[in-house]
Design brief:
By secondary structure, the chain is an alpha/beta fold. It has 15 helices and 8 strands. It binds 5,6-dihydroxy-NADP and zinc ion. The site of 5,6-dihydroxy-NADP (NZQ) has 35 residues, from helix 2, helix 5, strand 6, helix 7 and helix 11.
Length: 388
């Protein structure tokens, strides 16, 4: 195992009714917040009212930024940062899924920065400070509620990129599984694919002695396989929603990559699909992931996929390794299909016209080392072609 430092300071209040903790958490650190949310689901399912009640009860003033787009735009981040400065706000509260939370993160650091917040996204500058950030999660998927990452898009320029800063880590997050009961089946499925992809990105690494992290990864994958279909069949099944929610946070809060070099491959490719075609993140991952697995399967990697097949899918360890590996990959695709997720780019309206541009943009120097299997631009292009 490699050396590591692990520190996650986000306070998590998990479970039914935990919204009651929100006001107290904010009051410790802020008096006037920017309330950031998406297209209106929180107004329809009552979450907005519960949040507003908390703010009122605790004498916390707020200004609203509604309308955050799925794949949040830099233009919305700029508007949010300007609102914080204009109204002298001292905190940011995100209510929603990963898009609202990521947008709020970029706003929190953008409000404390004299330049353009896109500087953080493109790596021109690193945040030096941020307003305290609070989240109320309504969708199990990205893990943004407990990680320091924000993914922001400039769709006009076909750019979508993540940045990472300790100043983006939420101070406190409310995770009430009941708030996800209204999530439609397609978004529930996309969320499950996202959680599984985060887990795969950490699990398939060149180092194989990270026993605790790998065991946890396998448990998260089994949790998705058990509870994903249950949440789709019974949207108000608390056990299913609660387990998916907690799996989402732990798939990406850093624990699974402790002790090993990890470079995320499939996410870098998917971000290009979203950047060029504005598709749902989890859908893109479901299309690409089994194809990436098939592409990197070889004599050296097959035992890792075989282990995954035995430990996660319960395959018979007596079978030949290559057969186990191929069956495990087939099972991954069949599972995504069973959730109703698309399996090809054609199904989401993507043809071969931009594949080369997307492959070039997806590649980064980390793909050459510290990665499960190194990928060139041509390899990425091949994976995209396999996905057509
Ligand atoms: O906008 P509203 O009206 O709220 O509707 C949303 C949106 O249409 C809806 N929704 C969310 N909760 C709901 C609900 N509808 C009914 N009931 C509820 N309880 O679902 C739709 C999708 O929401 P969004 O926030 O876009 O989804 P998600 O959580 O999957 O976030 C996706 C974004 O996060 C980024 C993705 O790239 C994408 O931009 N990611 C962020 C990461 C991070 N911060 O660590 C890592 C991920 O790999 C990912 O890249
Ligand atoms: Zn993801």
């Amino acid at each position: 195992m490699d050396n590591f430092t692990y520190s996650i300071s986000t306070v998590v209040h998990f479970g039914k009714g935990q919204i009651k903790m929100l006001g107290g958490e904010i009051k410790k650190r802020a008096t006037r917040v920017l309330l950031v949310y998406g297209g209106g689901s929180i107004k329809r399912n009552g979450v907005y009212d519960a949040v507003a009640e908390q703010l009122r009860k605790n004498d916390i003033e707020w200004v609203e930024l509604p309308g955050v787009e799925p794949n949040p735009r830099i233009t919305t981040v700029r508007r949010g940062a300007a609102l914080c400065r204009e109204h002298g706000l001292d905190g940011v509260l995100a209510v929603g899924g990963g898009s609202s939370i990521d947008c709020a993160k970029a706003i929190a650091v953008g409000a404390c920065y004299a330049g353009d917040p896109w500087d953080f996204v493109c790596g021109k500058a690193a945040p030096q400070k941020g307003l305290p950030l609070f989240t109320v999660l309504t969708m199990a998927a990205t893990g943004s509620e407990m990680d320091p990452i924000a993914v922001i898009s400039d769709i006009e320029a076909n750019r979508k990129q993540g940045f990472n800063s300790p100043h983006c880590l939420p101070a406190a997050s409310i995770l009430d599984p009941c708030y996800t009961f209204t999530l439609p089946a397609n978004q529930t499925a996309a969320g499950v694919a996202d959680i599984m992809s985060h887990t795969f990105e950490n699990y398939f690494s060149p180092i194989e002695d990270s026993f605790l992290a790998d065991g946890m990864a396998e448990t998260i994958l089994k949790g998705c396989i058990k509870y994903g279909p249950m949440a789709i069949a019974q949207p108000d099944n608390y056990e299913a929603r609660a387990n998916l929610m907690w799996c989402s946070s732990w798939a990406i809060n850093g624990f699974l990559k402790m002790g090993k070099p990890v470079t995320w491959s499939v996410h870098a490719i998917e971000h290009q699909l979203s950047a060029f075609y504005d598709i749902t993140h989890g859908v893109g991952l479901a299309i690409l992931t089994p194809n990436w697995m098939r592409y990197v399967l070889n004599d050296k990697t097959q035992h890792r996929f075989a282990d995954y097949g035995v430990r996660v899918w319960g395959l018979d360890p007596a079978l030949p390794q290559r057969q186990l590996a191929e069956t495990a990959i087939d099972k991954t695709r069949e599972f995504f299909n069973s959730l109703g997720l698309p399996a090809t780019l054609a199904q989401v309206g993507i043809d071969d016209s931009q594949l080369e541009a997307m492959a070039k943009q997806a590649w980064n120097p980390r793909f050459a080392s510290s990665v499960f299997v190194p990928l060139t631009v041509e390899d990425i292009l091949n994976i995209l072609k396999m996905s057509l």
